[in-house]
Structures are given as C-alpha cells and as structure tokens.
Amino acid sequence: MFLNKIKMAVYAMFLTNLYGFKLKNIALYSKKKELRLQYAEQLLSKLNIHVKIKNKDRLPTDGQFLLISNHRSIIDPLIVEIALKDTNIFGLWIAKEELSSSPFFATFVKNAGTILLNRENKSMSDVFKKIKAGVKEGNSIFIFPEGTRNKEKTQLSSFKNGTQIIALKNKLPILPLYIKTNADEALKSALKDSSKHIEIEVEIGELIDFKTKLGVEELYRTMFKLI
C-alpha cells in the first residue's frame, strides 16, 4: 500500500507539472478547458476512479455561471471538470494563494485559469476585481463555498461569505453541483488498491437565480436534502 502511494504521488506530481507547462502559453480558454479535462481524465483513470453524473439533463451546454460545489478531497476540481465534459462551460477557479508556492500545484495553478485568494486578507476587493474581469472575458467562476476541504463527519460545512455577492455583482446564475460520494474516502481506497473500480457520483442541481432573496447555503442544502 505504501509503495503504491509513493508511485501515485510521483506520477501525480509529474502529470500535474506536465500539464501545468502545457497550459503555460495557452491563451484560448477553450484549449485550456480541453487540457484541464485531459489532465483530469488521465489522473482519475490511473486511479481507476470513474465519475457518474446524476441529473445530467440539468447541465446547461453554454453560458456563464457561478458554479458551486461541496469540497472534501483534493481531486474535487478534477471531478467537476469531468462533470462538465460535454459542455462549453469554462470557469476560473477560486483557489487559495498557498497553492501558487506548492512544488506540486504551483505551475498548474498559475497557468490553468485561477484567481488566487489570500485567506489572511480581510479585504476581498482585489479578488472581486479579478472575478469581474474574468466574467467580462466570457468565463464562468468555479468556487467551493465551504472555503476549504470539509474534514468533519458532516455532509456539508457552512458556506463562507461572498458566494452570493459574487453571483449578484456579476449577474451570474448559480449552478450547484453536489459530489455525493465521499471523494476523499474514494481516493484513499484507490491509493490502497488501484485495480479496484471506484465510482464517484455527482448530482447536478437546478439553477439558482442570482437575484434570489434566500440564502444560497439554505437553497443548496434543501436541493440536495442535506438538512
């Protein structure tokens, strides 16, 4: 098991940096989407992890959205990319700034299409400006509203402030995704035995109007029966 973990860690680092360099001089967002998807499929395939989509008919094929998803595992962004495979939706990920100095993720994060967030900075004005600029260019915004990985035994931790403001300020309909399978447990199982077929189910929710008067967390919990 330990040897398999080491092999996978080395492979994942190699693949992540390889695609990070591939993405470096790509300006066209449709090409970035293609490369991000290739990366996600290649890495999850190596782990023998497969993504199953529930309510796929709810997925828009085009448009700009604020995509929100729960967050338990480091492979969640890959799962989201695969869930959007048959759409033309490309989003800038909101990611923590620390990733930009990680030897594992730095090259990929800097080049794949991200907006870095300094969690120590109480002012969000710089992030909001970058989001606005990204939306103006025609992109969606992808965010984990819990703010960080949920390591509790609950299905969902509380949303951080800002999600609803981003949607409202940029007039972005909210596209909710819920990763029903505990992806962190799935990843641990794959690292233990990558010959085992593992399925992760993602449920697509109904679009939420950016002008909603109800709280996004409340709507998300109700939609996916997480109350």
Low-confidence stretches: none
In the CATH hierarchy, the third-tier topology is known as: Glycerol-3-phosphate (1)-acyltransferase
Count of extended strands: 7
Q: What is the domain total for the residues? A: 1
Gap from first CA to last CA: 37 Å
Order of adjacent strands in the largest pleated sheet: 1-7-6-2-5-3-4
CATH class designation: Alpha Beta
Sketch the major β-sheet: 7 strands, mixed
- Share of residues in helices: 40-55%
Secondary structure class reads alpha/beta
CATH architecture: 3-Layer(aba) Sandwich
Name the average pLDDT.
93
Strand content of the residues, in percent?
15-25%
Overall radius of gyration = 17 Å
The protein's oligomeric status is single chain
Please count the helical segments: 8
> What's the SSE pattern?
HHEEHEHEHEHEHEH
